[in-house]
Amino acid sequence: MTTAPSTGSDLHAEIEVDATPAQTWALVSDVRRMPEWSPQVRRTFVPGGAVRQGSRMINLNHRGWMHWPTQARVVRFEPHHQIAFRVVENRTVWSYTLEPLDGGTRTRIVHRRESPDGVSKLSTGLTKVAFGGVPAFTDELREGMQRTLERMSAALTS
Fold first, then answer.
1. Which residue among 3, 9, 54, 110 is least enclosed by CB atoms within 10 Å?
2. From which domain of life does this come (predicted)?
3. Is pLDDT of 120 > 60?
């Protein structure tokens, strides 16, 4: 597991897993299971059923006693390679990219949070007021990304 320092508001973490890209894709692309892995996500709804390019998602997130909903849309969906979704409220793009290793017997999962259009002022303001400030919350997100990947890895090898 490695994490890279953030560049502005962009975050990055990765892990190598003992599973094929197809096995890993089946897990990563099942966004309804995100609450099993992410320390922040409580529930994920995908109206309309199947997850694909353009699918809408509604998440219920939590931190301690605080709970808040977010909406997202799948903006990249390349089976066995990448899924990415843009969160409406803060404009960030969260993604999982799969890279085959060892002739396809293992996989690197690269988890990113990017903000190509910047983070919304509303989200930044709420982070300052409710989450202890942007630097503290960014560190918390980075740690959460690590835990998410570790939990995914454990699910793939169990």
1. 54
2. Bacteria
3. yes
Which two structure tokens, joined as six digits, stand for 127?
């982070």
Predicted confidence (pLDDT) per residue in 82-118, tens digit: 999 999 999 999 999 999 999 999 999 999 999 988 8
Instruction: Name the CATH superfamily, with its identifier, for domain 2-157.
Output: START domain (3.30.530.20)
Question: In the numeric block, which tokens belong to residue 155?
Answer: 């699910």
Compute the residue count for the chain.
158
Residue extents of the structural domains in the chain: 2-157
Residues 108/99, Cβ–Cβ less than 8 Å: yes
Give the chain's largest Cα–Cα span: 48
The C-alpha atoms of residue 95 and residue 82 are separated, in whole angstroms, by 7
CA atoms of 9 and 123, how far apart (whole Å): 12
The C-alpha angle with vertex 38 and arms to 36 and 42, in degrees rounded to 5, equals 70
158 three-class SS: coil
Cα(145)–Cα(40) distance, rounded to whole angstroms?
Answer: 10
Task: Name 144's Cβ contacts closer than 8 Å, sequence gap at least 6.
Answer: 38, 39, 40
